[in-house]
């Protein structure tokens, strides 16, 4: 009988994940490229509907690791009436804390349950768009790529938000105003900046950069109806660290996701007042995080209205999609690669080893990119 625990620890199985993920990614981005240049100029709406499923097919392979492979748990704190009436049925602008290596994946985990995973968008560094396959996928999916040069980024934000608001189906656009993941060193730099500018001192977050938000706000006001304030936390003393490596090894994590639906009309129109609104929001987020770390509860010490947690069973489609791609990609790839290894010829054996090695390196590099230590520095916007 197969021991699932040993199977999930196996480097061979992880290598199979890598082969399936990267090979399917190249196939999907190739299809995207054909449609991007051949269909989008003539029918944007149809292109975007098809691209939803192409993006979903790629993203859900990672969501599969959270939902099925590791059997991770997601506790959701949302007003039940709003969840049933609005979630997954409207465009949304997301403001989320950026504290963990897999905060984005837990967001995708949730988005998969409400049917918007394929239309999840985000702000990203421009250099990422050149990295296959994820960067290519994001480029063809119309992510907002920024250079950290405000004059250039302002025009990019204006154009991309206009494009995203024109989508036929709900789009969720993610912004992490902290700009980079929380670390002790970055937090020290953030506190120095906050003291210098007489801004609130945050204990568990970096001082948010407001210019990207206020610039975006003027372009999406009247087009995107709501802002979703998202707070993610994991138990501070959990035995399993919330990392991509943990999920790859089949180790479950337990994420706690609070979401508040805020109509855009509540945000002041004046730029300075809107910036203050964002700072005030992060003060509340900081109190919630502090309460969670102290008590295991977002609400006990924060003063925020209590919402009882609930969980949603994972949709079967991420499992079906991952297994489908495993069959489609691994069957020919392993047949070819094993043929090289057992050909009896040194050259073919070396080529086979080289290809396996390349997939293994891609896997390690991808995991490395998600690590907190690889995040950008705090406060390095170009002038």
TrEMBL record:
One Gene Ontology CC term in the entry: endomembrane system
Domain (Phospholipid/glycerol acyltransferase) ranges: 92-214
Gene Ontology MF: a single term: 1-acylglycerol-3-phosphate O-acyltransferase activity
Entry keywords, A to Z: Acyltransferase, Membrane, Transferase, Transmembrane, Transmembrane helix
The keyword Ubl conjugation appears for this protein: no
CDD domains given in the database record: LPLAT_LCLAT1-like
TM region positions: 12-38, 316-340, 346-363
Superkingdom of origin: Eukaryota
PANTHER family hit by this protein: 1-ACYLGLYCEROL-3-PHOSPHATE ACYLTRANSFERASE-RELATED, 1-ACYLGLYCEROL-3-PHOSPHATE O-ACYLTRANSFERASE 3, ISOFORM E-RELATED
Record family assignment: Belongs to the 1-acyl-sn-glycerol-3-phosphate acyltransferase family.
Protein name per its UniProtKB record: Fatty alcohol acetyltransferase
UniProt organism field: Agrotis segetum (Turnip moth)
């Amino acid at each position: 009988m197969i021991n699932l625990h040993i199977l999930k620890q196996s480097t061979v199985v992880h290598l199979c994940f890598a082969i399936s993920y990267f090979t399917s990614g190249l196939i999907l981005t190739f299809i995207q490229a054909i449609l991007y240049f051949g269909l989008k100029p003539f029918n944007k709406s149809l292109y975007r509907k098809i691209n939803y499923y192409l993006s979903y097919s790629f993203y859900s392979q990672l969501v599969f690791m959270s939902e099925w492979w590791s059997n991770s748990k997601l506790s959701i704190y949302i007003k039940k009436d709003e969840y049933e009436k609005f979630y997954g049925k409207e465009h949304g602008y997301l403001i989320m804390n950026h504290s963990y290596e897999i905060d984005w994946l837990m967001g995708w985990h949730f988005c998969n349950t409400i049917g918007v995973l394929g239309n999840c968008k985000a702000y990203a560094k421009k250099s990422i768009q050149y990295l296959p396959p994820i960067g290519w996928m994001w480029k063809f999916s119309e992510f907002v790529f920024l250079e950290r040069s405000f004059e250039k980024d302002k025009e990019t934000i204006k154009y991309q938000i206009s494009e995203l608001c024109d989508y036929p189906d709900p789009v969720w656009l993610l912004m992490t105003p902290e700009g980079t993941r929380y670390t002790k060193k970055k937090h020290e730099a953030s506190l120095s900046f906050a003291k210098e500018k007489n801004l609130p001192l945050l204990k568990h977050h970096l001082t948010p950069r407001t210019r990207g938000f206020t610039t975006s706000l003027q372009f999406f006001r009247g087009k995107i109806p709501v802002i979703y304030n998202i707070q993610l936390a994991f138990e501070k003393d959990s035995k399993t660290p919330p990392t991509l490596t943990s999920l790859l090894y089949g180790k479950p994590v337990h994420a706690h996701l609070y979401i508040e639906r805020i109509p855009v009309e509540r945000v002041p129109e004046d730029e300075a007042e809107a910036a203050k609104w964002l700072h005030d929001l992060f003060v509340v987020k900081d109190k919630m995080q502090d309460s969670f770390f102290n008590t295991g509860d977002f609400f006990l010490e924060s003063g925020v209205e209590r919402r009882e947690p609930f969980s949603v069973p994972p949709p079967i489609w991420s499992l079906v999609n991952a297994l489908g791609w495993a069959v489609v990609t691994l069957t020919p790839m392993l047949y070819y690669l094993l043929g090289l290894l057992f050909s009896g010829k040194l050259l073919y054996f070396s080529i086979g080893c080289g290809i396996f090695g390349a997939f293994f390196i891609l896997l390690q590099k991808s995991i490395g990119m998600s690590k907190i230590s690889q995040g950008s520095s705090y406060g390095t916007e170009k002038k």
